[in-house]
C-alpha cells in the first residue's frame, strides 16, 4: 500500500474504511485505527489493543475489571462500543428493569469526540453535558423502581486542552542527516514524539535537535519513573519528547490537519485533570488517581453482590418483592443520587443493591 498516492492515503475517509477492513480481517476486538501512519514505515509499528479492554481477557498483561467480575461470579452489564451512547443507555436500563445485575459499566465516548472538534469553550459542550445529565436522571429513575440502593460514579480518563500552537516537528527531524527506517524509528503523536534508535549517531542528532525546540522537552528517565511509565525494554520509546499544553504536533501520525482540542499532555498540566463525582457522601481517601478506580470498582461490585445475595424474598397477596437487609432496617428505601463527572470523556460505573 506504500505505492498508493498520498492524495488517497491522506484522506481520513479512506483511512477509516481501510482501518475497518483490516480490523475485521485480523479479528481485532479493541480500538484500532491507522490514522495517518505512513504505510512505508508501518512495519515498524505494533498495534497493542488487539483485544477489547471492555471484555474479560482484554489486557495484554494482567487482569481487568471484567476478569474479576467473571471470576467472582458477579452479574454485570458493560457497554458495547459498537452501539451509540443512547443504545447503550437503553440496554443498561433493560438490565436494571430485569433486576439481573449487581454492577454496570456504562461508556459514553461522545463528549471526547466533540471536544476534539470544537474545543472546551464551545456552547456545544454545555448542551452535551446537559444531555448526559438528563440521561443520568433517566437511569436513576429506573434504578429507583427496582433497587433500594445504588452507588453511582461518573468519571473520565482525562481532560481536554484547546490547541493554540501548531508544531511541525517531523520536518525538523526529517532535515537531519539521519533517515527514518534505517537510522531510527519514530511515532509522531499529537502531543509527543517517541523515538527508537538503530545507532548512536542518530540518537545524538535527534536529541540535540529536540533540545532546540522550545515548544516541548525531552522527558528524563527519573520523571518517567515517577509517573510509572519507565519500562525496562523501552517498548513505548527510548526517547520521549512531550510538547507543552496547547501545542499540537501537526502534521503527525495522528492526522495531517489541525483540530481544536487535544489531550495527552503532561499529567500535571491544568487540562489533564479529570473529575470524579459520586452520590456517596464521601469518596474513599485512597482514590486519588485513575488507577485507583480499578480497585474501587472491584470492591463496589463485590459489596453489591454480597448485599444482593443476602436479599430476602417475601410473598403476600400474590405479590413477590425483594428487600435488602439495609432496606429492612427502615421503612424508607435507601436511595442515593450522586453523580461524578470528569471534564471530558464520560464513563460511568454503577453498583446496585436490590
Short overview:
The chain has three domains: 6-50, no CATH class; 65-159 and 273-353, no CATH class; 165-270, Gyrase A, domain 2. It is 34% helix and 19% strand.
Can you describe this structure?
With 354 residues, this protein is an alpha+beta fold. The protein has three domains: 6-50, no CATH class; 65-159 and 273-353, no CATH class; 165-270, Gyrase A, domain 2 (2-Layer Sandwich), CATH 3.30.1360.180. Helix content is 34%, strand content 19%. It contains eleven helices and 15 strands. The strands form five sheets. Strands 1-2-15-3-12 form a five-stranded mixed β-sheet. Strand 13 and strand 14 (319-323) form a beta hairpin. Helix 4 (85-97) packs parallel to helix 6 (123-146) and helix 5 (110-118) runs antiparallel to helix 6 (123-146). It is elongated and about 70 Å long.
> What separation lies between the terminal Cα atoms?
56 Å
Radius of gyration: 24 Å
- Could you describe the largest sheet, including whether it forms a barrel? 5 strands, mixed
Mean pLDDT: 83
Helix content: 25-40%
Estimated structural class: alpha+beta
The arrangement of helices and strands along the chain is HHHEHEHHEEEHEEHEHEEEEHEEHE
Order of strands in the sheet with the most strands?
Answer: 1-2-15-3-12
Strand content: 15-25%
Report the strand count. Answer: 15
Instruction: Provide a count of the helices.
Output: 11
* Uncertain runs: 312-348
- Identify the overall geometry: elongated
Q: What is the total number of structural domains?
A: 3
Amino acid at each position: 500500500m506504500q505505492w498508493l498516492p498520498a492524495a488517497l492515503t491522506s484522506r481520513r475517509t479512506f483511512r477509516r474504511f481501510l482501518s475497518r477492513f483490516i480490523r475485521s480481517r485480523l479479528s481485532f476486538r479493541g480500538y484500532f485505527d491507522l490514522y495517518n501512519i505512513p504505510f512505508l514505515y508501518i512495519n515498524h509499528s505494533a498495534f497493542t489493543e488487539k483485544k477489547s479492554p471492555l471484555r474479560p481477557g482484554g489486557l495484554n498483561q494482567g487482569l481487568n475489571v471484567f476478569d474479576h467480575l467473571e471470576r467472582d461470579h458477579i452479574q454485570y452489564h458493560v457497554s458495547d462500543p459498537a452501539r451509540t451512547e443512547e443504545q447503550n443507555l437503553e440496554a443498561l436500563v433493560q438490565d436494571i428493569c430485569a433486576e439481573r445485575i449487581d454492577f454496570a459499566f456504562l461508556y459514553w465516548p461522545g463528549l471526547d469526540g466533540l471536544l476534539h472538534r470544537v474545543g472546551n469553550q464551545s456552547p456545544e459542550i454545555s448542551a452535551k453535558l446537559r444531555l448526559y445529565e438528563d440521561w443520568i436522571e433517566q437511569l436513576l429513575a429506573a434504578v429507583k423502581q427496582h433497587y433500594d440502593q445504588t452507588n453511582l460514579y461518573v468519571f473520565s480518563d482525562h481532560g481536554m486542552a484547546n490547541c493554540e500552537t501548531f508544531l511541525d516537528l517531523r520536518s525538523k527531524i526529517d532535515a537531519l542527516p539521519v533517515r527514518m527506517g534505517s537510522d531510527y524509528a519514530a511515532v509522531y503523536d499529537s502531543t509527543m514524539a517517541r523515538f527508537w534508535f538503530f545507532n548512536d549517531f542518530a540518537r545524538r542528532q535527534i536529541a540535540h535537535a529536540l533540545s532546540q525546540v522550545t515548544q516541548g522537552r525531552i522527558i528524563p528517565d527519573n520523571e518517567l519513573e515517577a509517573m510509572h511509565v519507565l519500562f525496562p525494554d523501552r517498548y513505548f520509546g527510548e526517547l520521549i519528547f512531550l510538547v507543552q499544553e496547547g501545542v499540537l504536533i501537526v502534521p503527525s501520525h495522528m492526522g495531517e490537519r489541525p483540530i481544536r482540542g487535544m489531550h495527552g499532555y503532561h499529567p500535571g498540566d491544568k487540562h489533564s485533570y479529570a473529575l470524579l463525582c459520586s452520590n456517596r457522601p464521601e469518596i474513599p481517601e485512597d482514590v486519588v488517581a485513575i488507577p485507583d478506580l480499578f480497585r474501587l470498582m472491584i470492591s463496589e461490585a463485590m459489596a453489591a453482590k454480597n448485599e444482593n445475595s443476602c436479599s430476602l424474598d417475601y410473598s403476600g397477596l400474590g405479590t413477590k418483592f425483594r428487600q435488602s437487609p439495609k432496606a429492612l432496617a427502615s421503612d424508607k428505601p435507601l436511595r442515593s443520587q450522586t453523580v461524578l463527572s470528569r471534564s471530558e470523556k464520560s464513563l460511568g460505573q454503577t453498583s446496585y443493591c436490590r
